[in-house]
Amino acid sequence: MSPIELCDLMAERFQAAWETLEISHDRFIRTTEEEHKA
């Protein structure tokens, strides 16, 4: 499994866990997204 594949998998799991726990956020952003880069 490549590093990005692992990150994709973990991001999905975190989002599913937050939904199950009824934890909300305004926007989910990944550090690989352009908006996160300085």
TrEMBL record:
The species this protein was found in: marine metagenome
Boundaries of every Methionyl/Leucyl tRNA synthetase domain copy: 2-37
The protein's name in its UniProt record: Methionyl/Leucyl tRNA synthetase domain-containing protein
A Pfam family the protein falls into: tRNA-synt_1g
Signal peptide span: none
Molecular function terms from GO: aminoacyl-tRNA ligase activity; ATP binding
Record key words, sorted: Aminoacyl-tRNA synthetase, ATP-binding, Ligase, Nucleotide-binding, Protein biosynthesis
GO BP annotations listed: tRNA aminoacylation for protein translation
